[in-house]
Structure formats: structure tokens, C-alpha cells
Inverse folding.
């Protein structure tokens, strides 16, 4: 058996500009909200190809339940170690509403301008550039790690990209080191990056460290060459790709993201976490990945049974967006022992392994119980954003208190004028119509009657389900976790309890 743990899905599909297949959405599963605990990271990948077929734009991101965005993917040259962006139109050129076509200067547009605007509007939201992914890794682009000169080139290009585009850090997605030499080279690269980032921080006089994260496998065959103690000293987070435990490479249908057990596939998230801890990883640096997609098996009688085909999917063959699940006609099954879920259509004999809100809630509770760092999601374009079934909001609800570390806005040596002048808001610069970060002024007041003692709604405040706020002289109660969604707005996250 070939174990492909975590992550053939983390790549740009060949048909990324095609609109996704859509299927009628079936039943939803009630969420479980657990007791909240300490501040956690809630991290989501944003893909630059998602603006095409999936039509998921940076402006579609709900920043409220997020602490970090990982912008995927940049590439790296195996010949030099130099990092490059992969889509100039998406990254730098596309104009979004509010962008001017005739403002003076050398200005950044595209998704990366939108990321910077998000950072300005939400000062606790950090954005890192993610380098690699499945395709570039499998094509050998990380082979440079065994060469010290190329590693130094990588470090230097990382610093330049961070300064030019306003990133808060770097995420490495190397799938996977396949030899002792590559394992050591990768560890040395991460050590060099941390040293360079700390120097960069000191030179700029920044109070907040720059982020360094790595997407790592949950499968033993793919993490065996990682030098965990050395890497752990340098990393901010280990982003554990806790999915893709089952798929088209198996001869039977199975769970793709089970927390426990995994008797048939020999992989589980709990076992992987325990391995990293046993090797010297810090619990408070481990982030558990959660898939925002499902893997399909056709013509099967159930888990552990043979299957024949994987179907068209909505993202790529055999892979369905979480936003399209469960499919119409399918029933949802949740196993609270191994903490996994799937849908099954007995007529079509189709099984789709994916995480429901109930399962995501239990995984977030596991993060709390084991003092892990938080959760990570691949990828944001396929969540049920703005609904009570959003997995990103579900885990944020369980955590309650999210990481409040400030992002960086000061990039005085950027090649882009509007990054240097913070979209026209930096001292000595003139704001333009296209460059002002959105703000919302609290409306209403504590009032009297049923509104007595209730604070006015604020776009910068995160509200948990059941919390109240005053807006427009009415009392409103949040239905679920929300931030920045106006009471009475189209998101429908607030209940109007009547006039004050």
C-alpha cells in the first residue's frame, strides 16, 4: 500500500479556471459549541487560483474567525533557490472595486493589495506567503535545500518578498523531504530563516516577530526525515496536514481525516501529534489541519469496502467542496469514537468522507484539551462562509478567544508605493479613493429598557453566539460567532429582539 498522507489536494488543479461542478445541497448537521478556553490560532489557506473558476475573491473572506491567512502558492527555483510569485495578474494586477486605473505611482493591485487592506482593517489578522505545495514539491523544486548557497538565496528572496508585498511571514509546504540530506537541509533552511527574520525584525524595530510556519505530514512515511528538535526551535507553528488519509490510491473506501483509530490506513491525527511531541515538538506550536473538502468513493457499500471510481467532484475528480456537502439524497454519519464523518447515498452507492461541524467542534476541543496552538483549513474558498455550518467559524466558536498578536504594516523599503505609504495613510502621504481601509463606527447606545447595560455594536468586536449588542436603537443577539457582520445585514447572523 502507498500511503499518501496529506496532500495531493494542496495544489493548483489543471482545470482551475473552470467553474466548479455544483450539486444540490442536502441536510446540515447541528453544531456543538463547547466551553471556551485560551487564545488560539485559526488559520486558513487562500489560493491565488481560486479567483478564477471558484470565483472566490479576497473580498469574500470573512476575517472575523481567522487569525492568519496563508497565501498559496509561490514557487522556488531548484536551480537557484529564488522564490517567485506564480500569477502576476492574480497577485499584482487585477483591479477590484475601489481600485483606480489612473492613480499616480508604482502601486500594487491584485489579491496582494486586498490582503494588505484586510490587514489594515483587521490588525490581528496576519498574512504569510506560502511557498511550495504538492505540485512544485513533487516536481523537485525543493531539491535546492541540500545546497547552502541556494538556501541563502532562498532566505534573501523571502525577505525581499516580505518587504515588497507586506507579508507577516513565510509558510513552507515541502512535500516531502525524502532523504537524510534533504531532511537536514530543510532543517538548516528553517534555522537560517528564523535567524534572518529575527535580524529583520530588530533592524526595523518591530515589536512583533515575523512568522515562520511549515505544513507537515501526518503520515509516517512522509515525516521520517524531519529533524523535529532543530525545526521546532525556529518555527512559529507546525501546520499538520491532518487529512488525505484515504483517497483514490487505496483499494477500499475509508475516512480521510479521522482523529483516532485508523486501523485500516495506519494513520490518525492523534497518532501523528503524539509522534511530533515525542520527537521534541512543542504542543503550543502544533496546529491541527481540517479539510474543507470531501473525498468520494463510488459504487461502494461503505467504509472498508471496495469501490469503483471516485466521480467528478466539484473541485477536481473525486474531491467535493465542503460547501456542496452533503450531496442531495445522502445521509450523514458521524463516528464520535474515532471522530470522523461521511455521507452515504444508498441509491448511488456513493460515500464522501468529510468533516461536519460536529467533528470540527470535537477536533477544536481536542486542541484545547491538549494545549495545541489551533486549527488550520485547506482552503477558504470551499467553506460555508457566513452560515452556522462554517467550519472556520465553528472552531473559532469553540476556542472563544483567538490570537490577538498584531500584524505588521510598516514596510518602508517596499518596491510598491502604496505598500510603503500604507495605502496613503502613513504620515506624510496623501490617501487616495482606492486605498483607504474600511472602518465601521459603532451605532446605537446602551439605552434603556431591554437595552440597558448593553454595549453598542462594533465591527471590530468578535461576538459569540448568544451575545447581545445595540444597533440602530434595537437590541440584537448573535446567532453564532461573528465579527464585522452588521446587524440586520445580508449575512443574517443577528436576531432582532426589538426596539430599545
Amino acid at each position: 500500500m502507498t500511503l499518501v498522507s496529506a496532500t495531493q489536494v494542496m495544489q493548483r488543479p489543471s482545470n482551475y479556471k473552470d467553474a466548479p461542478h455544483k450539486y444540490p445541497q442536502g441536510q446540515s448537521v447541528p453544531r456543538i459549541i463547547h466551553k471556551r478556553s485560551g487564545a488560539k490560532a485559526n488559520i486558513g489557506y487562500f489560493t491565488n487560483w481560486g479567483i478564477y473558476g471558484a470565483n472566490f475573491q479576497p473580498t469574500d473572506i470573512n476575517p472575523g474567525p481567522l487569525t492568519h491567512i496563508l497565501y498559496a502558492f509561490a514557487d522556488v527555483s531548484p536551480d537557484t533557490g529564488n522564490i517567485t510569485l506564480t500569477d502576476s495578474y492574480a497577485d499584482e494586477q487585477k483591479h477590484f472595486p475601489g481600485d483606480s486605473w489612473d492613480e499616480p505611482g508604482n502601486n500594487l493591485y491584485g489579491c496582494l493589495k486586498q490582503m494588505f487592506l484586510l490587514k489594515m482593517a483587521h490588525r490581528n489578522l496576519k498574512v504569510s506567503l506560502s511557498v511550495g505545495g504538492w505540485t512544485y514539491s513533487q516536481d523537485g523544486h525543493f531539491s535546492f535545500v541540500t545546497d547552502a548557497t541556494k538556501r541563502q538565496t532562498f532566505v534573501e528572496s523571502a525577505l525581499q518578498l516580505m518587504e515588497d508585498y507586506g507579508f507577516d511571514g513565510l509558510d513552507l509546504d515541502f512535500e516531502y523531504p525524502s532523504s537524510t540530506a534533504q531532511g537536514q537541509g530543510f532543517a538548516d533552511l528553517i534555522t537560517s530563516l528564523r535567524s534572518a527574520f529575527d535580524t529583520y525584525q530588530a533592524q526595523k524595530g518591530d515589536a512583533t516577530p515575523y512568522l515562520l510556519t511549515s505544513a507537515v505530514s501526518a503520515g509516517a512515511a512522509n515525516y521520517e526525515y524531519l529533524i523535529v528538535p532543530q525545526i521546532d526551535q525556529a518555527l512559529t507553528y507546525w501546520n499538520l496536514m491532518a487529512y488525505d488519509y484515504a483517497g483514490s490510491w487505496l483499494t477500499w473506501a475509508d475516512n480521510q481525516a479521522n482523529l483516532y483509530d485508523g486501523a485500516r490506513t495506519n494513520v490518525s491525527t492523534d497518532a501523528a501529534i503524539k509522534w511530533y511531541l515525542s520527537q521534541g515538538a512543542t504542543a503550543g506550536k502544533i496546529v491541527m489541519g481540517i479539510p474543507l473538502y470531501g473525498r468520494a468513493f463510488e459504487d461502494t457499500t461503505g467504509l472498508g469496502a471496495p469501490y469503483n471510481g471516485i466521480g467528478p467532484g466539484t473541485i477536481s475528480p473525486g474531491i467535493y467542496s465542503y460547501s456542496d456537502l452533503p450531496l442531495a439524497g445522502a445521509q450523514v454519519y458521524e463516528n464520535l469514537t474515532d471522530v470522523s464523518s461521511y455521507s452515504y447515498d444508498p441509491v448511488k452507492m456513493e460515500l464522501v468522507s468529510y468533516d461536519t461541524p460536529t467533528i470540527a467542534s470535537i477536533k477544536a476541543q481536542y486542541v484545547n484539551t491538549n494545549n495545541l496552538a489551533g486549527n488550520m483549513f485547506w482552503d477558504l474558498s470551499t467553506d460555508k462562509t457566513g452560515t452556522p455550518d462554517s467550519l472556520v467559524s465553528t472552531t473559532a466558536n469553540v476556542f472563544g478567544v483567538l490570537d490577538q498578536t498584531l500584524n505588521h504594516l510598516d514596510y518602508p523599503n517596499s518596491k510598491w508605493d502604496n505598500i510603503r505609504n500604507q495605502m496613503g495613510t502613513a504620515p506624510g502621504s496623501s490617501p487616495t479613493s482606492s486605498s483607504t481601509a474600511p472602518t465601521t463606527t459603532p451605532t446605537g447606545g446602551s439605552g434603556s429598557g431591554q437595552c440597558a447595560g448593553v454595549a453598542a455594536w462594533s465591527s471590530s468586536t468578535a461576538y459569540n453566539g448568544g451575545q447581545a449588542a445595540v444597533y440602530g436603537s434595537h437590541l440584537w443577539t448573535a446567532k453564532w460567532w461573528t465579527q464585522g457582520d452588521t446587524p440586520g445585514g445580508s449575512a443574517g447572523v443577528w436576531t432582532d429582539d426589538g426596539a430599545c
